Amino acid sequence: MTEAVVEVHDLRKTYRGGFEALTGVTFDIRRGETFALLGPNGAGKSTTIEILEGYRDRTGGTVSVLGVDPHRGGLAWKARLGIVLQNTGEAPTATVRELLSHFAGFYPRPRDVDQVIEAVGLAAKAKTPVRKLSGGQRRRVDVALGIVGRPELLFLDEPTTGFDPEARRQFWELIRLLQSDGTTILLTTHYLDEAAALAERAAILVGGGLASLGRIDELGGAAARVPIVRWRDAAGTHEERTDRPAELVARLRDAAGGEPSHLEVVRPSLEDIYLAFLGDDARTPTEVLS
């Protein structure tokens, strides 16, 4: 069994006024894996992450991150973490290399600054002030700051928000490089294709509770992944959910004397399964997935 570097059991958080942000969440993250935390805005993702990082107290439950209760984690423990926040504020006037060198000095065993700059694809911008970089390039600086300390556990909070498709794919390659180096990663993202491409396992939070937990290709259980067969005939359009689509297609062909019109077999995607968990929370695609 792979060692768990994050262990969360019955995590609860109630804010002033009685609002329950987390209602008893349990999961673990194993060393070297990329784990995705999914859910709509207000589901409890940010609260969970802030508790794991040691920035917010919990109301109940137990939490262990790298063998330490985050509420009691000191500087030595924090040096083992890498954190890439969704919003990092105003860009500094320092150059990329100056900023990375400054931050590297905070850690006992930092990565080589030039190697980090190369890894995030900013070698040509090493002497450029961060303020003059594009949004996507600044995001790469954020990641460089998150990994320069050689973290055992890296928190990535919505790392590719605002990226164009090409920049997102390049960023994914960087994450895969970190994965190959053995870095454990906790990823929060609204892009479900990103979760499917990068994470081995995921947890879906809805309304402060854990709706599903498991491998990306097992979320929702077998029932959620039953294919749908759709076809059209003189009576209109039909669809049927079946775990034996080939047999149904064969019967339809026999009955119609050939392949029915507009025949298709649709296997539920991660997005389909995710949206099914949200129910009334799945208000608009923009709110859920952007």
Provide the helix percentage: 25-40%
Number of strands: 12
Number of helices: 11
Shape: globular
CATH domain class of the largest domain: Alpha Beta
Q: Into which percentage range does the β-strand content fall?
A: 25-35%
**CATH-level-2 architecture of the largest domain:** 3-Layer(aba) Sandwich
**Uncertain residue segments:** 282-290
Strand order, largest beta sheet: 5-6-7-3-8-9
Distance between the termini: 36 Å
Give the overall pLDDT as a whole number. 87
Describe the 3D structure:
This protein is α/β, with parallel strands linked by helices. The protein folds into two domains: 215 residues, 3-Layer(aba) Sandwich (Rossmann fold), CATH 3.40.50; 68 residues, no CATH class. 33% of the residues lie in helices and 27% in strands. The protein contains eleven helices and twelve strands. The strands form three sheets. It has a six-stranded mixed β-sheet, sandwiched between helices. It has a three-stranded antiparallel β-sheet with strand order 2-1-4, with helices on one face. It has a three-stranded antiparallel β-sheet with strand order 11-10-12, with helices on one face. A hairpin with a 2-residue loop joins strand 10 and strand 11.
